Amino acid sequence: MCLAVPGRVLDIGEKDGTRMATVDFGGVQKEVCLEYLPDLQVGEYAIVHVGFALQRLDEESAKQTLELFAQLGMLQEEFGDPWEQAAAVGGDPWPFADDPDPDPDPGAGRPAPALAAPQEEGRP
Amino acid sequence: MKYIEEFQDPALARRLLDDIHATVTRPWALMEVCGGQTHTIIRHGIDQLLPEQVELIHGPGCPVCVTPLEVIDKALEIASRPDVIFCSFGDMLRVPGTGRDLFQVRSEGGDVRVVYSPLDALRIAQENPGRQVVFFGIGFETTAPPNAMTVHQAKKLGIPNFSLLVSHVRVPPAIEAIMQSPSCRVQGFLAAGHVCSVMGVREYPELAARHRVPIVVTGFEPLDILEGVRRAVRQLERGEHTVDNAYARAVRPEGNPAALAMLEDVFEVTDRAWRGIGVIPDSGWRLSERYRDFDAEHRFSVTGINTREPAECRSGEVLQGLLKPHECEAFGRLCTPRSPLGATMVSSEGACAAYYLYRRLELGTVPAAKTAPTPVSAPLEASPVV
Ligand code: SF4
């Protein structure tokens, strides 16, 4: 949660009287509030934390950070399914009867939640 | 053990390290304030690459870890009510309250939802006018402005069924408390970069001068940490104690003025209890009088909370840099991410979690085969249903 991730502004609009943008974080797109960086423009990069752009960032630093975060599985940690991650941390099965397991085998085909990934080291 | 080849720019990392090695003549103890920095340090083995004289002490900068047990218990109680939709960031799901956590509340039928942004919680409130929507507002100065804006919006749009359970904390008073502790060994600080993106550096010069400690604003990528350490060590060796911004690409000295104005409007400074540490004067925010209607504690009189902190947990000492996680008796034995005793073992920024994830085998604290947590893809029937 404390992680702030750089993203690139794709388009800008307005919602309930508030300046909002669609921001791309290395493939994941989110709605982001621009009220704290009101002059941010399409194509620019900013550090985004819990859906708010907080500070401008130059393109090169932004790209480097995103690349590093992707390598470390931190984008998955930030944008992946938090219930899956919480279940994984606790070693629990999918406990919510009313809900289908969103992905019965989350390890297949994409990075596992970051908290679980380093535990690979512990296995033979 | 990690290798320097794993750094994004190994040649630059090598140069920074060589410079630090060449500069150090005496032992120095630096505290990295931010839990994200702690994870970077442990994950990349930065503490092991530094000269022996440079010790990194882990600080209290994990908001999930320092949220008081009493507030977690209030959250659990509110989240259990049938008329409530309780919204939170994902990090809080596994943080132990007295006897249970939010994950469990949901499996017992509570309507707990994870949101990416506090504005998502506000939208849920708009879509569910018949129910109370409560957002768990924790975090340092980076998270407080988004939460402040959300409450401001709720008031502006007249959304009566939204409220905030507030437990915001501020970094500078924590630095002050650490420096005042008689057992304090910290000689320099790596300040949390993103906190400064919002707040700027105006709170630090006075702290640095009064306690005669260098404060270096530092990012959380491996090279940022090395650069922060390099600048702090250089100051210490020269007998200087100033504020230095090593994270200029994301930190302007004045911070973010719009965010600061909103913070001032929505919140007021208050004393706050930090989990494991106790009350630190002026170390938190609560909703100001104008926004009191949106205070969940006000709206739901949560009473009769009986908190029970596990006696074995020494996270208070870990958070103050007095104890390394593996020096705790319970580490990896009674306390693992699967059954954590303290929040520092489950939070993605917690120091105990960092040591458990990246160091436990090396430290020999834990017999790997017995305690390795079930991998995500393990067969479900292997674990009992909660
Ligand atoms: S290892 Fe567990 S019990 Fe020990 S201090 Fe950390 S969280 Fe508390």
From TrEMBL, chain A:
InterPro entries hit by this protein: Hydgase_assmbl_chp_CS, Hydrogenase_HupF/HypC
Domain of life: Bacteria
Pfam families referenced in this protein's UniProt entry, alphabetically: HupF_HypC (PF01455)
Residue span of region Disordered: 85-124
Biased composition (Low complexity): 106-118
Signal sequence coordinates: none
Family listed: Belongs to the HupF/HypC family.
The name this protein goes by in its record: HypC/HybG/HupF family hydrogenase formation chaperone
Organism of origin: Streptomyces nojiriensis
UniProtKB/TrEMBL annotation, chain B:
Keywords on record: Iron, Metal-binding
Name of this protein: Hydrogenase formation protein HypD
A Pfam family: HypD
Organism domain of life: Bacteria
Presence of keyword Glycoprotein: no
NCBIfam families hit by this protein: hypD
Organism: Streptomyces nojiriensis
Cross-referenced PANTHER family: HYDROGENASE MATURATION FACTOR HYPD (PTHR30149:SF0), HYDROGENASE PROTEIN ASSEMBLY PROTEIN HYPD (PTHR30149)
Family: Belongs to the HypD family.
Entry keyword annotation includes Lipoprotein: no
